[in-house]
């Protein structure tokens, strides 16, 4: 797979605590209820019915050095809470299993404050996409599973930026766009157990076009200028499809090695558009994004130390979908190194605890945005602890 392709943006790869501890690899293995997301075809291979709950508080630390300046500006500390919840049930060792999951595969939370040098591009962004996925998985043979799920997305966005209009108190005016919407898609996969013992998974998660209609547009401007500013907006956000090829290797009964290659179809994200209900003072906006398609590679290991304790670790690399000239404060993205660790502890044969920690080191990137002319260098690190509980029945 060529190294010139890209993948990351505002994708959130935090859909299962076991898999997070293995850098997010999971398309070619059947480990727990999160298999509903990673590969619906492998879900039927789970020996037990189970419920899995988890959360991964995400701390996004970014810094910006404006061109020609020696003062580093930092985003404000805010924690995003991506979560996952899965239930898998059906006849034990049967030919069919059902499941339902809720998870957050896309999102972003960044707040630069209203005094930094890029305030006319962005003050803050809070983006959430919550997917709900009912799923069915069928065992075609003892070695082949096939599964698919319907995806419903509830998306929301709150975006704030400064406007270069001075208010009577000397501060900048501000625009706030707040809205929510929905979209639909699907997730399907096939899972093979080869004669050599290696497992293989092929998965495709479809694009989800999320429509935000009749959102609230609030313009905090001098009273004398208020008339003519819009109060509502419409927008849409295409959340990209992902195609994954995963492998599971089993050197011993206690060791699982997972490797995933993911192709993310980010090229659907061409523009960020807002259609306002009143254009007397504000024209509809069409900000170019021009993302590229891309990929990420992830390798993880699960070692069952004892009947109760499992240790995990992983490493990965993801290539940014953001081309030169299109980097923005909403997603100050660059190629990133992924490192992870985790552990699992079985309190009983039915009740399990999983802990994970994932670090993403995003490379320093010097850019001049072609639309806003914001010029400088971004450097970002992401720290993500996680905890999950599961119950088998």
Automatic annotation (TrEMBL):
Family annotation (SUPFAM superfamilies): Porins (SSF56935)
Keyword Transmembrane on entry: yes
Similarity comment: Belongs to the OmpP1/FadL family.
Gene3D superfamilies: Outer membrane protein transport protein (OMPP1/FadL/TodX)
Annotated localization: Cell outer membrane
Protein's name according to its UniProt entry: Outer membrane protein transport protein
Record PANTHER family: OUTER MEMBRANE PROTEIN NMB0088-RELATED
A Pfam match: Toluene_X
UniProt entry keywords in alphabetical sequence: Cell outer membrane, Membrane, Signal, Transmembrane, Transmembrane beta strand
Topological relation to the membrane, as annotated: Multi-pass membrane protein
Domain of life, source organism: Bacteria
InterPro entries, A to Z: OMPP1/FadL/TodX (IPR005017)
């Amino acid at each position: 797979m060529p190294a010139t392709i890209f993948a990351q943006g505002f994708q959130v790869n935090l859909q299962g605590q076991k898999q997070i501890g293995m850098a997010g690899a999971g398309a070619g293995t059947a480990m727990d209820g999160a298999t509903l997301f990673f590969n619906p075809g492998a879900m039927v291979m789970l020996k037990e019915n189970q419920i899995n709950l988890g959360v991964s508080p995400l701390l996004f630390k970014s810094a910006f050095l404006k061109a020609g300046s020696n003062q580093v500006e930092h985003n404000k500390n805010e924690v995003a809470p991506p979560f996952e919840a899965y239930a898998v049930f059906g006849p034990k060792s049967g030919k069919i299993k059902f499941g339902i999951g809720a998870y957050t595969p896309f999102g972003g939370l960044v707040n630069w404050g209203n005094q930094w040098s890029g305030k006319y591009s962005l003050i803050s962004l809070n983006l959430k996409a919550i997917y709900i996925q009912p799923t069915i998985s069928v065992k075609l043979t003892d070695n082949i599973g096939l599964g698919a799920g319907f995806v419903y997305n509830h998306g929301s966005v709150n975006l704030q930026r400064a406007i270069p209009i001075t208010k009577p108190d000397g501060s900048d005016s501000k625009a706030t766009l707040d809205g929510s919407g929905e979209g639909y898609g699907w997730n399907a996969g096939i899972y093979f157990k080869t004669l050599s013992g290696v497992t293989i998974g092929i998965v495709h998660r479809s694009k989800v076009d999320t429509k935000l209609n009749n959102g609230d547009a609030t313009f905090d401007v001098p009273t004398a200028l208020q008339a003519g500013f819009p109060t509502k907006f419409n927008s849409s956000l295409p959340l990209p499809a992902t195609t994954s090829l995963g492998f599971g290797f089993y050197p011993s009964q206690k060791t699982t090695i997972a490797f995933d290659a993911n192709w993310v179809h980010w090229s659907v994200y061409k523009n960020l558009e807002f259609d306002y209900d009143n254009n007397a003072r504000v024209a509809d906006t069409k900000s170019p994004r021009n993302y590229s398609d891309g990929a990420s590679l992830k390798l993880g290991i699960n070692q069952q130390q004892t009947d109760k304790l499992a240790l995990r670790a992983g490493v990965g690399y993801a290539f940014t979908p953001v081309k030169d000239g299109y980097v923005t404060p909403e997603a100050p993205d660059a190629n990133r190194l992924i490192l992870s660790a985790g552990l699992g502890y079985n309190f009983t044969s039915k009740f399990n605890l999983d802990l994970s920690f994932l670090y993403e080191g995003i490379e320093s990137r010097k850019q001049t945005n072609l639309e806003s002319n914001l010029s400088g260098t971004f450097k970002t690190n992401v720290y993500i602890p996680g905890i999950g509980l599961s119950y088998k029945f």
